[in-house]
Design a protein that fits this description.
The protein has 127 residues and is mainly beta. Helix content is 0%, strand content 53%. The chain is built from no helices and eleven strands.
Length: 127
């Protein structure tokens, strides 16, 4: 079992940047793919980005490709999401999630593949 804690959310103007982080407790972090999801008010939770345990496989939602970058730093058990060129529609609670399985080579993109979730961090983009 792992525990996840997100940080780094906040209020930013459209066009701006933000980096959110997720620190993971537990010894298995380096074996797990990690993902970011988001949920806007009145909408379902949606996939944003994911990175495999090795870091070699990354996947992004079409809506964030070219603007967001996911990365991981195993030494400090942290996964990051760099958000650039932010849009008002990026406003949401951003959740970090850890894969159910170890050593998955392809970064998963569906919520059912993730077994542990953080509490979320709010990102608000103003116009």
């Amino acid at each position: 079992q792992v525990q996840l804690a997100e940080s780094g959310g906040g209020l930013v103007q459209a066009g701006g940047s933000l980096r959110v982080s997720c620190v993971v407790s537990g010894r298995t972090f380096s074996r797990l793919a990690m993902g970011w999801f988001r949920q806007a008010p009145g909408k379902e939770r949606e996939f944003v980005a994911a990175i495999s345990w090795s870091g070699y496989s990354v996947n992004y939602a079409d809506s964030v490709k070219g603007r967001f970058t996911i990365s991981r730093e195993n030494a400090v058990k942290t996964v990051y999401l760099q958000l650039n060129s932010l849009k008002v529609e990026d406003t949401a609670i951003y959740y970090c999630a850890a894969d159910r399985a170890e050593f998955r080579h392809i970064a998963p993109m569906t919520a059912v593949d993730f077994g542990s979730w953080g509490q979320g961090t709010q990102v608000t983009v103003s116009s």
